[in-house]
Amino acid sequence: MGTAARLVPPAPLLLVDGFNLLWRGHFGFPSPVFSLDKSRNLTGLFAFFALLRASIRDDLDVGPVEVCVVLDGERGSAGRKDADAGYKANREETPAALEPLQFLAPMREALDGYGIAWVEIDDAEADDVIATLTRAHIDRPVRIMSADQDYYQLLDGERVRIINRSRKASKRIITDVEVVDRYGVTPAQWPDYRALTGDVSDNIPGVKGVGAKTAAALLAGGITLDSLRDSGRLSGAKGEAIVRQWADVLRWRQLSRMRHDVATGWQPTGLPSPTLPKPADVVEKLGLW
């Protein structure tokens, strides 16, 4: 019996981009959720657990998973902002835009209370932590829950797939095949592609006049920026624009690339995580109704 137990493979990992889910839940949930006396807006907290629970129940294409919620560190983007002051400079920091931050403490408390792991590294963004964990556990299927396209660079056949709950049910699982079919580039080329086309969400401008089709054509055959400049493909006005901004293009690629060397401090157990209760029960246990 002991030998058989040791032969059971570890549970697949579900790595959740916590801020992405919290923000999308707070601002995109079908209807707001308030405390019983209507004095507190609890939408973000309620939606976070509702969406996570529903995705575990409905969206997975693998067996019971070990869940880890990954949060952006307070100084997580500092390194990229030092490299480019414009990085994420377009994101609002008004009180209204930052409303979901109020739910971080109770969210962590609830995750602890229900036995769900979470990781927050002060000087690392969530995507770098998720990239590190994905590479560190190559023996396990990994599902990444996020609507952020940056994670496309991590897609890897059946092992690494993305769950985007903002898409309709039949389209929520994103694979490397979809990225190739839809964008004309491989996951490994994604940072090169974004460096050329830009990324509005991270305030990476890209090269003016270079759109998705042009970028895909330039990178056709699997080449990267490392060989693009000497490929003979940079002709005409668009090619000249890329050459003129070459240093910027390389910097934008570096901003888009995820790190795989974060000291996460978290060791998976290999066992499936406990089942989450209904979100109303989570809020009740926290005493916030």
What are the SSEs and their pairings?
Layout lengths: L1 H6 L5 E5 H11 L14 H16 L7 E6 L6 H6 L20 H10 L3 E4 L5 H11 L5 E4 L14 E4 L9 E2 L1 H8 L6 H8 L14 H7 L6 H4 L7 H9 L1 H11 L22 H8 L3
Q: If you had to describe this structure to a student in words, what would you say it looks like?
A:
The protein is of the alpha/beta class and 289 residues long. The chain has 13 helices and 6 strands. The protein has 2 domains: 193 residues, Rossmann fold, CATH 3.40.50; 70 residues, 5' to 3' exonuclease, C-terminal subdomain (DNA polymerase, domain 1), CATH 1.10.150. It has a 6-stranded mixed sheet with strand order 3-2-1-4-5-6, with helices on both faces. The longest helix is centred in the first third of the chain and has 16 residues. It starts with a helix and ends with a helix.
Question: What would a concise description of this structure say?
Answer:
This protein has helices at residues 2-7, 18-28, 43-58, 78-83, 104-113, 126-136, 176-183, 190-197, 212-218, 225-228, 236-244, 246-256, 279-286, and strands spanning 13-17, 66-71, 117-120, 142-145, 160-163, 173-174. By secondary structure, it is α/β, with parallel strands linked by helices. The longest helix is centred in the first third of the chain and has 16 residues, at 43-58.
